[in-house]
Design brief:
- Pfam families: CesT.
- It comes from Shewanella baltica (strain OS155 / ATCC BAA-1091).
- InterPro entries: SicP, Tir_chaperone.
- This protein is an alpha+beta fold.
- It contains three helices and five strands, in the order αβββαββα.
- The protein has a five-stranded antiparallel sheet with strand order 1-2-3-5-4.
- A hairpin with a 3-residue loop joins strand 1 and strand 2.
Length: 144
């Protein structure tokens, strides 16, 4: 068992979940039956991929809103919103340098979940055709 596997197992114990990386170095995690997170490890960082939308809308206002959110995330160092063409999916992507402990991961995941929930709520609002003010979204608690 390598250091990544050990750390993920300890993190899973803290959450009360049996977490393991698969053969591709990925672990899927579902929070609150709504927040789907893929965790992947690399040599120097762990990357978190969060599903925001399948088959995102093509309307101009939708993508403008996503890019405004992306700007906020970039300015705050909290990751980015990206489009994955093979899955036709809008993702929130963020990372943490190689975590030192399960506690550090747990704190990071708490902040990540807050940011992810705020982004997901906004994207869902945009997909229903309703408008919401980007300025009312609180991203200060989440991400890195």
């Amino acid at each position: 068992m390598n250091a990544h596997d050990q750390l993920l197992a300890q993190f899973g114990q803290a959450l009360g979940l049996p977490l393991v990386f698969d053969a591709n170095g990925q672990c899927l995690l579902m929070l609150d039956e709504k927040l789907m997170i893929s965790i992947r490890y690399g040599d120097v960082q762990w990357t978190f991929y969060c599903m925001l939308a399948q088959q995102p809308l093509a309307e101009k206002h939708y993508w403008q809103a996503c890019l405004q959110l992306n700007l906020q995330l970039a300015e705050q160092g909290k990751g980015c919103i990206c489009y994955e063409p093979q899955a036709d999916a809008l993702l929130y992507l963020t990372f943490i340098p190689m975590p030192a402990s399960a506690l550090q991961l747990r704190e990071f995941l708490g902040d990540l979940a807050d940011t992810y929930q705020a982004l997901l709520s906004h994207v869902e609002t945009e997909m229903t055709g309703q408008t919401s003010s980007i300025n009312t979204i609180n991203l200060s608690a989440g991400g890195q």
